[in-house]
UniProtKB/TrEMBL annotation:
Residues 286-396 form the ABC3 transporter permease C-terminal domain. It is found in: Cell membrane. Keywords: Cell membrane, Membrane, Transmembrane, Transmembrane helix. It is a multi-pass membrane protein. This is Putative ABC transport system permease protein. The chain crosses the membrane at residues 15-39, 278-307, 335-356, 368-390. Residues 67-219 form the MacB-like periplasmic core domain.
Length: 404
């Protein structure tokens, strides 16, 4: 089919064509960025915590006197270890997807004024590292001789393990073993690297910081009490946590069990990513609504043009045009309109993405989303124009003579 007659017809309907082009451009820009945001959110929900989530639960107690922390730890550890099915119970300050308790800035040198980043410190008592199920990729796991009392929220000095992501950030071209990080003018020497260890409450500074974690072995005491890590077989974990909460009422009736902080790690993960899933669902609804409005706009405009051109269509049919010719004409016309809109929409998509990058620290929109958005809109346009085009193709040649 010749493109020139189609372009000539569009020039005679400039305003209507421009409105549809702008609508498609907006749909293209929103579609590409919304799909990217959905994919980004869903990718975040698949974050590897690095721990054996299905076997772990957190039990958080509040309302106790810090001076009684040592006695509380002893009673809780002794009492919970007798629960049938429990494999281990240990003291820890936080767990992945739970409430953060040790967020602090670190430096690579005591005297440098520059911060190397904000990280989360996991402070764990005896047995906590093994219970978490962390995988050491280099160096060694904590030993009993590594543990010392906690001053404030960290020991004064201790050997630590860092996540692989944090090690790559701090020492991208060097072996992290033996290196020292400083926090509050206190040195912590790296003796091991774990494969993954997600921060309790996510990363500050973007998704790439979600595994900037440090594990510090320490002795339970006044500054390390009230949060307990339970390990059990996955099929018994819920029952063990339920029994543990009931057992606390007997062995430590003076404390309060924090219901939000006393859950299994699968439950904590589900709650942690609830907003991400809700955002993805909302964006999906926006996409569906926008595509529906765009489709209705194309249907309405094409139906209007078919009604206006009924006599012209009859004349073409009388001169020998087949139904396929009429159908192809409207499909070609729609393809050109959608293509103009897509071209403008791609520029708009990059503009919106640039705004999101500067305001919300989102990554750059991958080019892959542009052809995907174009294919979706081309397909939507062809489907939307099909019904009006079929009606146009069904116009009989006799219409031309009846209109004379």
């Amino acid at each position: 089919m010749q493109i020139q007659p189609v372009l000539a017809a569009l020039r005679r309907h400039r305003l209507a064509t421009l409105l549809i082009v702008m609508e498609i451009a907006l749909a293209c820009a929103v579609l590409c960025n919304a799909c990217f945001l959905i994919a980004n959110r869903l990718q975040q929900t698949r974050l590897q915590s690095g721990v054996d989530e299905t076997s772990l639960a957190e039990l958080t107690l509040t309302g106790f006197d810090p001076s009684q922390a040592t006695d509380l730890n002893a009673r809780v550890l002794d009492g919970l270890r007798t629960i049938p099915g429990i494999q281990s119970v240990s003291v820890i300050n936080a767990v992945p997807f739970g409430q953060h308790a040790g967020t602090a800035g670190i430096k690579l040198s005591r005297d440098t004024p520059d911060s190397a980043g904000v990280v989360d410190f996991y402070v764990g008592g005896p047995g906590s590292f093994e219970a978490l199920g962390l995988h050491v990729v280099s160096g060694r796991a904590p030993q009993a001789t590594d543990m010392s009392a906690v001053a404030d929220f960290l020991p004064k000095s201790a050997p630590v393990l860092v996540s692989r992501a944090l090690a790559a950030h701090l020492w991208p071209d060097a072996d992290p073993l033996g290196k020292v990080i400083w926090c509050a003018d206190r040195p912590y020497r790296v003796t091991g690297v774990v494969d993954h260890l997600a921060r309790p409450a996510g990363g500050q500074g973007g998704p790439e910081t979600r595994e900037w974690s440090v594990f510090v072995p320490a002795l339970p005491g006044e500054n390390l009490a009230g949060v307990y890590l339970l390990r059990a077989a996955p099929d018994q974990l819920n029952r063990v946590l339920r029994d543990a909460r009931a057992r606390i009422a007997k062995i430590a009736p003076e404390v309060v069990v924090d219901s939000l902080g006393s859950q299994t790690l699968p439950q904590l993960r589900d709650r942690y990513f609830r907003d991400d899933r809700a955002m993805a669902g909302m964006l999906l609804g926006v996409i569906v609504a926008l595509l529906l409005v765009t489709a209705l706009g194309i249907v309405g405009l094409t139906s209007f043009w078919v009604a206006q051109r009924r006599k012209q269509i009859g004349v073409r049919r009388a001169l020998g045009a087949t139904r396929g010719d009429i159908l192809g004409y409207f499909q070609t016309e729609n393809f050109l309109i959608v293509s103009f809109g897509i071209g403008l929409g791609m520029l708009l998509a990059f503009g919106i993405n640039l705004l999101l990058m500067t305001q919300y620290e989102l990554p750059r929109l991958p080019l892959l989303y542009l052809p995907i958005g174009a294919l979706v809109l081309w397909g939507l346009g062809q489907l939307s124009v099909l019904a009006p085009a079929l009606r146009a193709a069904a116009v009989p040649p006799v219409v031309a003579t009846r209109s004379v």
